[in-house]
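User: Hey, quick favor. My workstation is busy. Could you predict this chain's structure for me?
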Amino acid sequence: MGLDIKVVDAMGKELPQDGKSQGEILIRGPWITGSYYNAPESQAQFTEDGYWKSGDAGTMDEEGYIKITDRVKDLIKSGGEWISSVDMENKIMAHPAVLEAAVTGVPHPKWEERPIALVILRAGFKGELTDEDIRTYLAAKFAKWQLPEKVLFVDEIPKNSVGKMNKKVIREKYKDIYTP
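Assistant: No problem, here it is.
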């Protein structure tokens, strides 16, 4: 109530309210700031027509309901298309052998970015699951072009001070994995 909300693509073009088209959620209204005090460097977080760029990725359906699907910085842009790291992480973690998973995009010479998946297996499953098993499991929900070529089985996933996956550290550590 009292807010204007829209979902836009990477070029700022408003997307259809179909519940499927994913983009960044923009918000404006009397309760939304138009700028940050004494922070001219923050102007990039606002559009010229007064919308605040939330940094959240999502969809809007025909009735105006918003579904937040990811953070824009965590979306993987591969070949001009978006891949949701959160959706892929959730699908991997639904596998009964998986304890924890992190998915992020890393540079790719042809596709701009490609996903990699870090997977921690539950006790008793170590060595029993392959990267191909994970890709096959993901293929039930994701298109072939969205699947990570690299699935790495690890003992630990980097976390930040509040226990969230530190995708910045993961991206830096694996930035050259697709470089020949």
